[in-house]
Write a structure and sequence with these properties.
Blueprint: E1 2-6, H1 10-21, E2 25-29, E3 41-45, H2 46-54, H3 58-63, E4 65-69, E5 72-73, E6 91-96, H4 97-108, E7 113-114, E8 119-124, E9 129-133, E10 138-141, E11 143-146, H5 153-158, E12 165-177, E13 188-191, E14 196-202, E15 208-214, H6 224-232, H7 242-249, E16 257-263, E17 275-277, H8 280-283, H9 292-307, H10 313-339, H11 344-360
Parallel strand pairs: 1-2, 1-11, 2-7, 5-13, 11-17
Antiparallel strand pairs: 3-6, 4-6, 8-9, 9-10, 12-15, 12-16, 13-14, 14-15
The structure holds flavin-adenine dinucleotide (FAD).
């Protein structure tokens, strides 16, 4: 069997690896001239680590990550405890995105990756799909997997009218500071006022990942640094969070990543007979649950499992969709409960309820 995978982000690379391990010949096309991930941290939960263990790279992934715990504090520094959930519901691995994508690209095999090659269109036939690419070439395959992110061109053809939409007023700022630039006494995530959340996490190599988010943000003005500093005001009791403000101030403007958060609306279908969506292309969701990549990694594992040892691609893709659409409807409900929590304590409780659900699900694989 032969697969064309469109997109060399975390989920695209994991899809390429899962299919490769399932005995499928893989051609992965990435629009950018190199495999690169915006340089910030990423939380991987136990379910994603279980997939990487299955794919044989769990130890390598752990080697570029720091075991961490997601607990929230209020601006006064008080822990927002969730005694009904166990310690395992808070544990995750904080990895550096670029190190993870490098490792994944090596595992897929660089020779299987076509860089600077964008998806343009596909033609689906009864027994194969032809993928047309930006360099004028075409690739015939048994299956096309669109893992090209929230603005997916594959999705635009498969499910027209489902353009990514702004999550109104929801913005995120983040950066990773290398070791020696600055150190922090501990990791800390704060649920503040005015819809702001943020904090700083120590990375495995002695650096610091800081992040600031705001729901229902007023219109943005000023530089990215000023925007992040304005929000840090809402994360400290005395009108400023000194450590966070110091981290933001120490970050060069061009290294601060800002995102208007984009969402993919719920899709009526994720597949056709020979085309499937995975990752943000299928379900870009609000990052307040810090799980988009983690869940996308499970999409990849499920696709790999269902396509292993079968020649019946349409049946495998139909099974994938039948599992994933109801699953993501549930994710959306749990995510909304976190987002609309009336108090920081409730936010912390719904967040732990989500991570508890996510990591205690039966592994999503065939
Ligand atoms: C602020 C923030 C914090 C987050 N924190 C976490 C976290 O802690 N934990 C977590 O699990 N998730 C987190 N997420 C979510 C996570 O970042 C995404 O879910 C994940 O990166 C999606 O990966 P992907 O591979 O599906 O898509 P992408 O990373 O968007 O990759 C898509 C790739 O496709 C390529 N591409 C696009 N169009 C084409 C084309 N036409 N042809 C070829 N290639 C193309 C792009 O260049 C890109 O490389 C966060 C998100 C945000 C915004």
């Amino acid at each position: 069997m032969r697969a064309v995978v469109i997109g060399g982000g975390i989920v695209g690379l994991t899809s390429g690896l899962a299919l490769h391990r399932a005995g499928v010949e893989v051609v992965l096309c990435e629009r950018a001239p190199q495999i690169r991930a915006a340089g910030a941290g990423l939380g991987l939960w136990a379910n994603a680590l279980a997939v990487f263990d299955e794919l044989g790279i769990g130890e390598q992934v752990r080697a570029v990550g720091k075991p961490s715990e997601m607990y929230f504090h209020d601006p006064a520094g008080r822990l927002l405890d969730t005694p009904e959930f166990g310690a395992e519901d808070h544990r995750y691995l904080l990895v550096h995105r670029a190190k993870l994508t490098d490792l994944l690209a090596d595992s897929v095999g660089r020779e299987n990756i076509r860089l600077a090659t964008a998806f343009e269109a596909y033609d689906e036939h009864a027994d194969h799909v032809t993928v047309r690419l930006s360099d004028g070439s075409g690739e015939d395959a048994d299956v096309l997997v669109g893992v090209d992110g929230a603005y997916s061109s594959v999705r635009a053809r498969l499910v027209p009218g489902t353009a990514a939409q702004e999550h109104p007023g929801h913005h995120a700022w983040r950066a990773v500071l290398p070791a020696n630039d600055i150190t922090v006494p501990e990791s800390r995530v704060i649920l503040g006022t005015h819809g702001c959340r943020g904090g700083y996490l120590r990375t495995h190599d002695g650096g610091v990942y800081w992040l600031v988010n705001q729901f229902n943000s007023p219109k943005l003005t000023g530089t990215r640094k000023q925007q992040a500093l304005e929000r840090a005001v809402h994360l400290g009791e005395d009108g400023q969070h000194a450590v966070l403000a110091e981290l933001i101030a120490a970050t060069p403007e061009e290294q601060i990543l800002h995102n208007q958060i984009m969402l993919v609306p719920p899709l009526p279908h994720w597949v056709s007979a020979r085309v499937a969506l995975a990752g943000d292309a299928a379900h870009a969701m609000s990052p307040h649950i810090t799980a988009g990549a983690t869940l996308g990694i499970e999409d990849a594992a499920l696709l790999g499992g269902l396509l292993a040892d079968t020649a019946d691609v349409p049946a495998a893709l139909a099974a994938y969709e039948a599992i994933q659409i109801p699953r993501y409807a549930h994710v959306a409900r749990l995510s909304a409960a976190v987002e609309h929590a009336p108090t920081p304590r409730e936010f912390a409780r719904h967040y732990a309820a989500f991570s508890h659900w996510m990591i205690s699900q039966e592994p999503v694989r065939a």
